[in-house]
Every structure is written in structure tokens, then in C-alpha cells.
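Hi there. Long-time user, first ticket. I'm pasting a complex I've been working with (about 273 residues overall). I'd like to know whether the download I got is complete or cut off, because the file seemed smaller than I expected. Thanks.
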Amino acid sequence: MATKQHLTRAQRTTIINGVVCFVLVLVILQLWLLTATMNAFLGGDVSVVWPALGASLVCLLLNLGLLRYI
Amino acid sequence: MPTHDQEPDSVGVTRSNVDEPPRDPDDISRAPNPADERNPPEWRQDFPIDWPKDELVARREFAKFLVLTSSAFAAGQGFIAARHLIKQRRSTLPIRFKITSLPAIPAAGVVFFSYPSEHDKCVLVRLKDGTVVAFSQACTHLSCAVIPKVDEGVFVCPCHEGYFDLRTGRNISGPPPRPLPRILLETEGDAVYAVGVEERTTV
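Hi, the file is complete. Here it is re-exported in full:
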């Protein structure tokens, strides 16, 4: 009979550490995207505006998905 | 006979109450009120007594804060996109504006003017070889007014020591991330006209 595995606090802390690492990498990526897009936009290059918005929203959705695990 | 698996409580406060929820073996302290044990109040979760609980809460809160930051960055991207849309709708034909006449500018002379609106300060420079160039006067770092130094061949931003090439407007050193926007010029007879602004990321 399958039973729900009960994780110890130490195991949950490890999972949260992993999730925090993923979220941190995605947030740094978003920061880079924002600065690069702002520089391009102020320099008159608007071709990156929509792709960068899409990429940033994908990162946000991934982060929200990861948040459900903690 | 115990009703559920009980683990030895070697440390911490124990109670004789048998109606307790299953606990982690690494939990140490217990709430004095059994009702708090099942549905702990928020303050007890936010300010735990034991280190393992405290570390868990701190990481979880940090992750939530990171996701909030992620939302802010996505909102920032949305703001840029909105600015782009507004700029597209407001775009009008470039204005043709007479700046000055060529004989009025001496060699290595400078003329200040506003273009395309009265709030956009610009500078026109007649180089030593007679070439006329014009750029926006707003530094691309934090929009301080740049000062032309014709003898040294540079524009200097006095706020943070940013340097731009006088001939091309290229950012040479300091914090400015982009070249100065170039004012497109046309000459008609002796008159010099501004006919557009060229924003650039590179020269």
C-alpha cells in the first residue's frame, strides 16, 4: 500500500535550498534582461522589447511554479 | 498499546497527552497549547524557537522575497513595453528647425540650442577642420549636461567624469553606457537645420 512519504525537516530544508538556488539564477537572469533591454530601448533599438518581456514573464512563471514546492 | 507510532522524546518538554499529531524526529520544542500544535498561529511559524525551524522559515521567506523581486523585474519589462507603445503612437514627423547660420559659428565654436522640444538641450560644434556636428547635451548615464571641450576633442560630463568623443559622440570612458544621441543636420545655403535625432547603442 502506497503511503505519503513524510519528509524530515532536514530533507525539506535541502529541497528549499535547491528551489532557492533555481529562483536566484532566474532572478539574476531577469535583472540582466531588464538592464540590457533598458539600454537598448534608450539607445533607440526597440527590437528586443517584446522578446525580453516574454522571456521575463516565462522566468516569473517558472519562479511561481517553484514557489509551490515550498 | 499506542494508537500511532510514538518516537522517544529524549529532549525538550514532553506531555502525557496521547492525542498528538505525528512529529518530525528533529523537532525539539512543543507548543504549550495542544491546539497550537495542530494549527500553529502565524507568529509561532514566523518566530520559531529552534534553529532547524528558524533556518527553514528564513529560506522559505527568502525564496518568497526572490519571487516578489522577480515580479518587480517582469513589471519593469512591462513598463518598457508600455513606453514603447506610447512612443509609437505619439511618433510624429521630424521637425525641421533652423539652428544658426554657418558664418556665425567661428572655428572651434559652439552653439547651444533646443531640439526637438524646448526641454531637449543640444549642442552644435564646429570642429577645427570646419565640420559641423551636433549632439544631445544629456549624458547617457544620468542626463547631466555634457560640456564640449573643443581643444581636447571631448565632451565631458562633470557629474561622474564621463567622456565622449567630440566628433562622433562615442562614449570613451566613465559610466555612460551609450554614445550621445546625434542630431541630424542639413545645410541649405548658409543656414544649418536640425532635421532629426538618431539614438544609438553603438557608433
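A couple of notes from our side: The first helix of chain B runs from residue 34 to 38. The helical segments of chain B are 34-38, 42-46, 51-90.
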